[in-house]
Amino acid sequence: MSQKINGVKGMNDLLPGEIEVWQFVESTARTLFGRFGYGEVRTPVVEDTALFVRSVGEETDIVGKEMYTFEDKGGRSLSLRPEGTAPAARAYIEHSVNNQEPVSRWFYMGPMFRYERMKTGRYRQFSQIGAEAYGAKEPAQDAELMDVVVQFLEALGLTDVTLNINSLGDDNCRPAYHAKLVEYLNAHREELCADCQQRLERNPLRVLDCKNEKCQAVAGAGPNVLEFLCEPCRAHFTDLQRKLGVLGIRYVVNHRLVRGLDYYTRTVFEFIASHPALGTASTVGGGGRYDKMMKGLGGPDVPAVGFAMGLDRLVLLLKEGGKTFTQRPDLFIAVADEGSQDQGLALASRLRREGLKVDFDTRGGSLKSQMKRADKSGARFTLVLGEQERQSGQAKLKPMAGGEPIPVALDAVAATVRAQPEAPAPVPAV
Ligand code: HAM
């Protein structure tokens, strides 16, 4: 017997029945981001490895440990994208978008890849919905972007989420903070994990987002980045908070928030859900400003700010809500005899063309078994087609939730179904 081949660990299949909640999140994002003027961008899932090394940073867990990197047949080092910000920036630069318009607003959704230790809400292929705004350095842009997320979460019905904000300063003020941080971490060197002892030499900020509990405790008691901000960075952060107030957005200032990517300057933020379903993977989204990235990638000096939401985590939260997202059929067509099978097939086809969602069992079978399947399908109505219905052109719509059958002419089924008020979905048979 041939051996069964399973999917790759940490990469999930999404089947009908489960996909509907994903489609709900995606279509809500499309509608909402469109309202804010964000246009969709699609970039390849594979990029030059150097793109991530130079933007996300060599010392980050993402680039240092988690990237799926391989050599193609031409000997180039390529990586499956671990995130969407650097690819979007690469596309922005490559297409000289800054020469076409001063401000661009883009969003994207799709799979990202990180070789992570798996648990609930943390996968090796996961999906992000992200948005990036290019060309505006003002705090109003940061605030508007957070408003996108707030309204997106509201539209999904996810309200139990807290916005954390922080500022990481810029090239001007961060060195002083770095120096203080290194001094502090050196004094606690023995308490840090082996990785962090190395990070301390090469990129001390990364110690702050180490997942090791001991390191987190040390980092938590360290110097406060906000006390080191230079005047322009402080003004930016103060104005951002005022703007969030104007928008009525609630937030918490969290000076320990550093994010796991190197490209941020000034504003960083995360949306954290309090639902136990996510366990430690409670960050449903995060982002920040990255005013230096474009230049660092050989592009123009264009400021930018963005975020990405973890679609898998949003879906986990929505599933906890117990709402159903599957659209049930309007009608199930059953045939009373084999001679009506072709007409049943044709009627189903015509009604679908007229816009109804119709279920029809292509296997035929006894009327009893078809009625069982009609029950299970959750259809609003069942129509039985037999010799008599075909002769008379008249049939009956049986409401599956109970009630009197509704007489209907076979050429007026769509209109009649549409005219019936929606009843609650019957409980499908198990
Ligand atoms: P990130 O914080 O690395 O940021 O990822 C954003 C979100 O993606 C996380 O908050 C989380 O919900 C989700 N996520 C990350 N890793 C996984 C995983 N292994 N499994 C499931 N979900 C995951 C970024 O990627 C930045 N590009 C965000 C950004 C956009 N900054 C500026 N613009």
Automatic annotation (TrEMBL):
InterPro entries the UniProt entry points to: aa-tRNA-synth_II, aa-tRNA-synth_II/BPL/LPL, Anticodon-bd, Anticodon-bd_dom_sf, His-tRNA-ligase, HisRS-like_core, HisRS/HisZ, HisRS_anticodon
Any one cellular-component term (Gene Ontology): cytoplasm
Root EC class: ligase
Naturally occurring in which organism (per UniProt): Corallococcus aberystwythensis
Aminoacyl-transfer RNA synthetases class-II family profile domain ranges (all copies): 1-329
TM regions (residue ranges): none
Alphabetical list of NCBIfam families matching this protein: hisS (TIGR00442)
GO MF terms held by the record: ATP binding; histidine-tRNA ligase activity
EC annotation from Swiss-Prot or TrEMBL: 6.1.1.21
Protein's UniProt keywords contain Ligase: yes
Catalysed conversion reaction: tRNA(His) + L-histidine + ATP = L-histidyl-tRNA(His) + AMP + diphosphate + H(+)
CDD domains: HisRS-like_core (cd00773), HisRS_anticodon (cd00859)
Family: Belongs to the class-II aminoacyl-tRNA synthetase family.
Keywords assigned by UniProt, alphabetized: Aminoacyl-tRNA synthetase, ATP-binding, Cytoplasm, Ligase, Nucleotide-binding, Protein biosynthesis
Subunit-level organization: Homodimer.
HAMAP family linked to this entry: His_tRNA_synth (MF_00127)
Gene3D superfamilies: Anticodon-binding domain, Bira Bifunctional Protein, Domain 2
Residue sites binding L-histidine per the record: 83-85, 114, 128, 132, 259, 263-264
Domain of life: Bacteria
Lineage: Bacteria, Pseudomonadati, Myxococcota, Myxococcia, Myxococcales
Protein name: Histidine--tRNA ligase
One of the GO biological process terms: histidyl-tRNA aminoacylation
Compartments it resides in: Cytoplasm
